[in-house]
Design brief:
Distance between the termini: 42 Å
Radius of gyration: 19 Å
Number of domains: 2
Low-confidence stretches: 1-34
Order of helices and strands: EEEEEHEHEEHEEHHEHEHHHH
Number of strands: 12
Oligomer: single chain
Shape: globular
CATH class of the largest domain: Alpha Beta
Number of helices: 10
Length: 290
């Protein structure tokens, strides 16, 4: 059985995290964690809830917060089936905390960016599907964080922007890879060149979010989806979050082979066999028109 460090003891007061030794030149260093008021973690049954709690800063990201996200997703309890990321206050995340931006030479800047890559890879390629509950600002690094999640639920207050281009900087948290896969290169280029802001409806239409819900209900919908996803066979969820994105990037002939292998592996699992038997014997619900 996995033994968790003290900061992952679960209770109803929401445990808190902070980086004591931040990632600097080496993005793979082991981090020591101490209480951090900027992020809350809790388990609601088998669903992990990760909440950014810097409302006075519009939940802007700094290195300590990014490293905390990494540590949480590297140490999820074994019973976790899915996770939800949300933000307190009026906004999901307004991006990089520019007061935390330091002058760096090219090498230091590269290593700093890579440390963010490692953290957000733990979200995208962690052990469970992750749903982002979006409201208010989903800007810059906030959009990068959202794009690392597998499903995005936005409410009517959400808006999206990539202001890095107008501030003389460039995305560094994986956005240039992930965001074009959601909305296309041309749209991302336009956002960065012109500072264009998409509202909630426009964002859902172009692919920023898969669900658009009334104001104030994004978390509820995201949690509902997390519970539904958590009922899937774990191996199928793993295939969808780890293998499907890679198949999409492969040439067709390689994708077909990868699909055949993961399909055979998934259907050979005992849980998959039981679910098929349940359907054939009338114990599982049929698909209905919504």
């Amino acid at each position: 059985m996995r033994v968790y460090p003290d900061y992952l003891v679960i209770n109803h007061n929401y445990d808190r995290f902070q980086v004591k030794n931040q990632v600097r030149e080496n993005p793979y260093m082991t981090l020591t964690m101490t209480p951090n008021p900027d992020i809350h973690f809790e388990m609601r049954g088998d669903i992990a809830v990760v909440r950014l709690t810097r409302p006075t800063k519009r939940n802007a990201l700094n290195d300590a917060l990014i490293a905390s996200i990494r540590q949480i997703f590297e140490n999820l309890p074994d019973n976790t089936k899915a996770a939800v990321i949300a933000g307190d206050g009026d906004h999901f995340c307004a991006g990089l905390d520019l007061s935390d931006l330091k002058e760096r030479d090219a090498g230091q800047g590269m290593h700093h960016s890579r440390s963010w890559h490692v953290a957000l890879e733990r979200v995208q390629y962690g052990p469970v599907p992750v749903i982002a509950a979006l409201h208010g600002a989903v800007v810059g690094g906030g959009l990068e964080l959202a794009s690392a999640c597998h499903i995005r639920v936005a409410d009517d207050t959400a808006f999206y922007a990539l202001p890095e281009g107008t501030r003389g900087i460039f995305v560094g948290g994986g956005g240039s890879v992930r965001i074009p896969r959601l909305i296309g290169v041309a749209r991302m280029t336009d956002m960065m060149l012109t500072g264009r802001v998409y509202n909630a409806a426009e964002g859902e239409r172009v692919g920023m979010a898969q669900y658009l819900v009334p104001a104030g209900t994004a978390f509820d919908k995201a949690f509902e989806l997390a519970q539904r996803i958590g009922q899937n066979a774990p191996l199928t969820n793993y295939a969808l979050t780890h293998v499907l994105p890679r198949i999409a990037e492969q040439p067709a002939d390689q994708g077909f082979i990868t699909e055949s292998m993961i399909s055979a592996i998934a259907q050979a699992a005992p849980e998959a066999k039981q679910r098929v038997r349940d359907f054939l014997e009338g114990r599982a619900a049929k698909v209905q028109k919504s």
